[in-house]
Amino acid sequence: xxxxxxxxxxxxxxxAPRPGRRADAERNRAAIIEAAGEVFAECGGxxxxxxIARRSGVGMGTLYRHFPTKDELLVTVLEQQFEAWLTDxxxxxxxxxxxxxxxxGFFEQTLSTQARNRAVVESLTATGGPSxxxxxxxxSIIDQLRTRCVDVGMLRPGxxxxxxxxxxxxxxxxxLSTADSRPGQxxxxxxxxxxxxxxxxxxxxxxxxx
Length: 210
Hints:
Elements: H1 23-43, H2 49-56, H3 60-66, H4 70-95, H5 99-114, H6 118-127, H7 132-151, H8 161-177, H9 185-197
Helix pairs in contact: 1-2, 1-4, 4-5, 4-7, 5-7, 5-8, 5-9, 6-8, 7-8, 8-9
């Protein structure tokens, strides 16, 4: 993905920097990442990066020097946001003694976070996350939560970690598709889904091709 507009890296060529990034360069990079996080959350990954430059208070040349393509900037921002979200979600889940509440709380926190961040939802629905490490970590957390529920007989028989991971992605798509028209609809869909996962439902699940 390339930046919109006719500006190129060659237009902003500069002498090689001295060893170590200067303090002002570090501040510029931090400002770009912070502004990008806000803009991507509001508008999604398709936003014009000129808006990011404007909010961060830097010129386009400075933005290009730190992030030659919008893809690089988007992945950097999303990885930071995913790591922060997963760390917080995992800590809350592990601190919750009741396994079922830990699982449902994870889903609720995940989707409420996504409802405030369009770019995160786009990444989840497209690839499951911005990087393979993020996907693997999310899968691992879900597996831990599923195992805890299975151990105490709270989860419907036959439900797999893959089922829960795919369900999370499906609900993420619902968050994205209803964000403008029915922003709270995902809560209803989540409740319906969680009821279906409860061990109160003992009917065998259809065979899948997992």
